[in-house]
Amino acid sequence: MSDTKRKKSVTAAPGVAAASLVAVATLFLGAGPAQADIDVTATPNPDGVTVVVYSLAPNPPGGLCTYTARPQGNPIGKPLPVTNVPFFLPQGGSQSIPFLSFQTGATWDITVDCPIGGVQYDWVVY
């Protein structure tokens, strides 16, 4: 009986080692290629900031989208989040969205939700 248990554990050991190696490789290398289908930039101006959302290839999002931005951390003046601002994003194009505000230097967690391309995420500081 002890020989049977030993054979099972010896044959299982290479499988466990291989699975562990794959798990570690996935942790450091990632599970696959990541795609960023949008890019967001913010440009300060005298009245506040202009945010530009770019629709990128290979799967350009587009349509009547919504823009949501939430400040992260504890910026000076703690700005309020911007939620579900509608805008039209042409596929493969860009759209400017002006906001009247003051500069806080906050890092914003940005979500753009489009009917073509789904939900996209980005970070920007302004």
Spans of 5+ residues with little confidence (pLDDT < 50)? 6-35
**Shape designation:** elongated
Return the structural class. Answer: alpha+beta
Strand order of the largest sheet: 4-3-6-7
- Give the tally of β-strands: 7
Distance between termini? 69 Å
Q: Which percent band covers the strand fraction?
A: over 45%
- The radius of gyration over CA amounts to 23 Å
On the 0-100 scale, what is the average pLDDT?
A: 75
Quaternary state, please? single chain
Order of helices and strands: HEEEEEEE
Proportion in helices: 10-25%
Count of DSSP H/I helices: 1
Main beta sheet? 4 strands, antiparallel
Attribute tags:
126 residues, alpha+beta, 4-stranded antiparallel sheet, 3-stranded antiparallel sheet, 1 helix, 7 strands, elongated
Describe the structure in brief.
This protein has 126 residues and is of the alpha+beta class.
Description:
- The protein is built from 1 helix and 7 strands; from the N terminus they run αβββββββ.
- The chain is an alpha+beta fold and 126 residues long.
- The protein has a 4-stranded antiparallel β-sheet with strand order 4-3-6-7, with no helix packed on it. It has a 3-stranded antiparallel β-sheet with strand order 1-2-5, with no helix packed on it.
- The longest helix has 28 residues, at 2-29.
- It is elongated and about 35 Å long.
- The N and C termini lie far apart (69 Å).
